[in-house]
Request: fold
Amino acid sequence: MADDGGRQSSSGGNKPGYSKDRDEAIHKRLKEGTLKLYELEKELSPLDAIRIRREFIEYETGTKLENLGIFSIDIDRVVKRNCENMIGTVQVPVGIAGPLMVNGEYAHGSYYLPLATTEGALVASVNRGCSAITQAGGAEVRILKEGMTRAPVFAARSIAHAKQTVDWVSGHLDDLRAAADSTTSHGKLIDIMPFIAGTSVFFRINFDTKDAMGMNMVTIASAKVAEIIAQGTGARLVALSGNMCTDKKPAAINGILGRGRSVVAGIALSHDLISQVFKTDAPTLFDVNYRKNLIGSARAGAMGFNAHAANVVAAMFIACGQDAAHAIDGSTCLTTVDPTPTGVYVSVTLPSLPVGTVGGGTSIDTQQECLKLLGVAGGGTPPGTNAKKLAEIIACGVLAGELSLLGALAAQHLAHAHQKLGRG
Reply:
């Protein structure tokens, strides 16, 4: 169905699929509790289920939700793979920053960055950073390592049993690798790293997930591995995730060992370019980064040493169908500014960037368009190259954002920029 603007709508009325008598009967069953909200798709098309569910919530809460019911995405797959009890969509504005010149191993060329955000001044700030990077000849960027992790926790009978469990796993790595690889046609088990805390035994299992971010893949494979470990050692599996993974929480282990894609990007800026674009100088840029990003972050006990890296990660994640909760990983970024004879060399190190170009939200129509904009939609050739390319582009976007904010702080322009662009 489409409204006058060409958008899909589930607002009902006299449109195809709408039946007043049927809808009233379903509302009555929902009210009585003989039909559950999550069961609507069993009796209705996805579009009608979304509409009736939203109408019921409107009635129950006394809140009109008409704008939630206007959307352009094809929801048939979404209701099966991405969202339960769907009542509509929330629209997030998407701005574009660029062009951004990237000199990576997988991303090489000029890119426009889609940024989904409601924060005024963010897109303008990243755009300025993109301009500086492009004028300087493009950002260098490299993937340092990759691997998605899941870390089950086992209970041992004693510390001696805990050590025996670790030794058993070490001696059966080939068997465990074969069992894990049998659960997926794409993923490959890379290694298993053990950790003992008293009688608790953790195994941080690391996988190559190719172009997928891979959490579902590694969870299923880790379940198979954990089952074999429990059978072989007598250690009791307590939880498939023991928080040593570490998933969707700030954790030093991700910053040290990496998770997802570990990426580093950098750019050399001349004195003239710093003055022209950022209205400041190299020593001031260095001083702001040193006292804010390094000393300030250390004094605060932060796990990330950057200006606002998660801002850019979150905006690109939402636009490109990534798991938005993994934006927390972007906050572990380390931003450095090195003085050079000709200016400064600025770099960002992102040790944990869980991204993928297949699976999850990447197939939703609007997000798929953003991935196509970057030339990374779907699986790469060879497998894994598209996800690495996306990681390189995001890292360079973070670099652009860091440059611009450091420049604004150095020039004492931050408050003015937010006054001009960030006020509603």
